[in-house]
Amino acid sequence: MKRRDVLSTIGALSVGLSTSGVTKGEVLEKPYKTIERELETDILVVGGGTAGSIAAIQAGRTGHNVTLLECQSQLGGTITTAGVAYPGLFFAWGKQVISGVGWELVQSAVELNGDSLPNFSIPHGREHWNHQVRLNASVYALLVEEKCLEAGVNIRYYETPISVEFKENYWHVETIGKGVHAVIKCRQLIDCSGNALAASMAGYDVFKEKVTQPGTLMFKIGGYEFESLDLERLKVAYEMAIDRGELIRGEFRGDIVALLKEKGDNVQHIEGADSTTSETHTVANIKGRESLLKHLRFLKKQPGLGNIRIEEMRTETGVRETYRIEGLYRISYEDYITGKVYPDSIAYSYYPVDLHNTEGVVPEQLTEGIVPTIPFRSMIPKRSKNFIVAGRSICSDQLANSGLRVQASCMAMGQAAGAAAALAIEKNVTPADLVMGDLKTLIEMHGGIIPKGGNSFKG
Ligand SMILES: Cc1cc2nc3c(=O)[nH]c(=O)nc-3n(C[C@H](O)[C@H](O)[C@H](O)COP(=O)(O)OP(=O)(O)OC[C@H]3O[C@@H](n4cnc5c(N)ncnc54)[C@H](O)[C@@H]3O)c2cc1C
């Protein structure tokens, strides 16, 4: 068709459209308008990640009305969206120390995907990762959503709080989502955002280290034979690329060989990665992807790596550390490495002290027989009412936090938070005033394990 004919056809079409209004299949709609909602729920959980989804399931299983806000498109948080799908650690010194809702989910995910559990009876020695459970993140995302729905949890994806206010004995949480603006009124609020976001909005004190641990974009690479690579030559090329300013040593812990040997996984380090706001998380995501792309282009030019390719990449850079609450108790490094048991210990937490810095990480294994515990007071912001925090942002110093932030511990905290919120409603008290014996009994009734005895773990 000649240009003049094409133009006249378009002209005829547009004339046709303007006379009939809409074409077949189109619907004449009012201009786009934000939907306003006023909702009420017993318990609102902010953040449907590692701790939050478990908190919601536990609270739902007590028969309460539960709403779960998640700003992403799926549940599981760092396990699924960030792809750190190897929760640890459920067993210590030959005995199970964390069980309950999280463990139930992990077992179901392993079974559904035809995977297997590690042999927990073989001591892990200095290689604690041998006791982490390798999960398929997608399967976990499917199952955690299913279990929430079965527990009657009302899931709200793509939504975030913009204000949190306590009025006339209720929390009023104003949220914004895609095309939705809501005010959610609730009796108990659980902050599982990983960033103490709701606690901060509620006006409670939060703190952050001057230098936080780096973040990591999880990915898998392939398309090469590691055994046939000339590693010495590769190391020289890598050093030259760093000298030319093309690559940054810290981004892969200065170890290009480890990146190739591990085929990606948990090897990248993005300094200052922060998930607190959409702006800071955008920066962390872009830095993680840019770093991967730069290294991939460099590697592709090296002998034996012409076919290197990305086999999998998660959608966000995983963040290890941001804000924590100032709580009724701050767990110290000393408490952690001595396995202190408190009258209000609601869960064990077993993992080495694991602080990542620019050099990498050298985990400090716990002394044989030691299993740290989580006191419920570390989950309650100072001067708070009807408010609980679970997950990595509980009140703890940086070294203690580097160990207790792991997934099995976050799941156990989530379960304790869900149970405590439910019990607080039933007893009509604020969580800090709960009788610890009642809370422990409820957690145990739902399969959780409560620490017993003095500071030495008897199993
Ligand atoms: C790279 C990396 C490696 C790690 N390695 C291990 C390991 O080997 N083993 C291990 O057990 N642990 C590991 N961890 C630690 C562990 O994964 C995390 O500390 C833990 O998962 C944190 O759980 P959480 O529930 O506190 O936060 P998350 O799981 O991150 O959940 C927070 C949830 O809140 C949502 N959210 C945040 N802000 C808002 C908002 N404003 N509105 C609504 N929703 C919001 C998020 O989208 C997310 O779903 C690692 C962490 C990282 C980043």
Concise account of the structure shown:
The chain contains 12 helices and 16 strands. The chain is of the alpha/beta class.
Structural topology:
Elements: H1 3-20, E1 35-46, H2 50-61, E2 66-70, E3 91-92, E4 95-96, H3 101-112, H4 137-150, E5 154-157, E6 159-167, E7 170-177, E8 180-191, H5 197-201, E9 206-207, E10 219-222, H6 231-243, H7 256-262, E11 264-265, H8 278-300, E12 309-313, E13 324-325, H9 333-338, E14 345-348, E15 373-375, E16 387-389, H10 398-404, H11 407-427, H12 436-445
Parallel strand pairs: 1-2, 1-8, 2-5, 8-16
Antiparallel strand pairs: 3-4, 6-7, 7-8, 9-13, 10-11, 10-12, 14-15
Flavin-adenine dinucleotide (FAD) binds next to helix 2, strand 2 and helix 11.
Notes on the protein architecture:
- The chain is of the alpha/beta class and 459 residues long.
- The protein folds into two domains: 37-211 and 321-445, FAD/NAD(P)-binding domain (3-Layer(bba) Sandwich); 219-313, no CATH class.
- The protein is built from twelve helices and 16 strands.
- It has helices at residues 3-20, 50-61, 101-112, 137-150, 197-201, 231-243, 256-262, 278-300, 333-338, 398-404, 407-427, 436-445; strands at 35-46, 66-70, 91-92, 95-96, 154-157, 159-167, 170-177, 180-191, 206-207, 219-222, 264-265, 309-313, 324-325, 345-348, 373-375, 387-389.
- Strands 1, 2, 5, 6, 7, 8 and 16 form a seven-stranded mixed sheet that branches. The chain has a three-stranded antiparallel sheet with strand order 11-10-12. A two-stranded antiparallel sheet has the order 3-4.
- A hairpin with a 2-residue loop joins β6 and β7 (170-177).
- The longest helix has 23 residues, at 278-300.
- It is globular, with a radius of gyration of 25 Å.
- Residues 46-52, 69-72, 77-78, 82, 84, 86-88, 132, 160, 192-195, 197, 215-216, 266, 318-320, 391-392, 405-407, 410 line the site of flavin-adenine dinucleotide.
